[in-house]
Every structure is written in C-alpha cells, then in structure tokens.
Amino acid sequence: MKWVKIFNSLNEAKERMANKTPIKITVGNKVLCGVRINDNLHVSTNKCPHSGAALNEGRVNHLNEIICPLHSYRFNLLDGREANSQCADLEIFPVRIKEDGVYLAL
User: Fold this and answer.
1) CA nearest 58: which of 18, 50, 47?
2) Which long-range contacts (CB under 8 A, 24 or more apart) does 93-97 make?
3) What is the pTM of this model?
4) What DSSP character marks residue 36?
5) Over its length of 106 residues, how does the chain's per-residue pLDDT go in tens digits?
6) The Rieske domain covers which part of the protein (predicted)?
7) Cα–Cα–Cα angle for 4, 30, 23, nearest 5°?
8) How far is it, in rounded angstroms, from Cα 106 to Cα 91?
9) What is the homologous superfamily of the domain 3-101 according to CATH?
10) Are 25 and 63 within 8 A, CB to CB?
11) Residue 5 contacts by C-beta under 8 Å, 6 or more apart in sequence?
12) Domain boundaries, the chain
C-alpha cells in the first residue's frame, strides 16, 4: 500500500470539498470519488459497482451513504457495503489526516 498526499492540510480539503458533496479526485491514472463529512474524509472508486455510473455525480444522504445517480443504489462510505446487498461492494480507500497533509492509501 502506497500513501499519496492529496491535500496539504485538512483546511485545504475543507475549502475544496463542500460538506456531503461528492467530488472527483484524480490520482495518477485512478479516478476516485471523495466526500467530506464534517472533519472526516472518505474516498472510494468513482464507478458504481452496479452500473459504472460516476459517483461524484451522485449525492450523500442523511445516513452518510453515497447514492448512485443512475439507479439510486446506496453505499456506506465507511465500509463500501451496498445498503440492500443488490450488487458488489464499493471499494473504499483508507485516508489519514496528518499535520503535514491528507494522505490516501492506494
């Protein structure tokens, strides 16, 4: 597992990521989906395991699940599980917030 810096600080991440609004994050050749929930950052693959839809075009609900914009499948941002076990789980990447930046494990 390789740790890659994606933001210089938590404050920078908060400035670039609106709360509970998915964004596309590109790291090398990987296209990922990032979500900030208060001071917690979550990163997953950007493709829905069911349909391949871009999850950064989806939304986050009150249960802190990311919802696919195509068929409304819901994925837990902590473990990637689909709420109704209708498809494969979403791949989730570990995130570390340190004094010198925010890091993502690839």
Assistant:
1) 47
2) 93/32, 93/43, 93/44, 94/1, 95/41, 95/42, 95/43, 96/3, 97/10, 97/39, 97/41
3) 0.95
4) E
5) 899 999 999 999 999 999 999 999 999 999 999 999 999 999 999 999 999 999 999 999 999 999 999 999 999 999 999 999 999 999 999 999 999 999 999 9
6) 9-104
7) 85
8) 11
9) Rieske [2Fe-2S] iron-sulphur domain (2.102.10.10)
10) no
11) 100, 101, 102, 103, 104
12) 3-101
Residue type for 65, please? E
Distance CA 47, CA 39 (A): 24
- Helices vs. strands in the chain: H and E counts, helices first: 1, 10
Amino acid at residue number 68: C
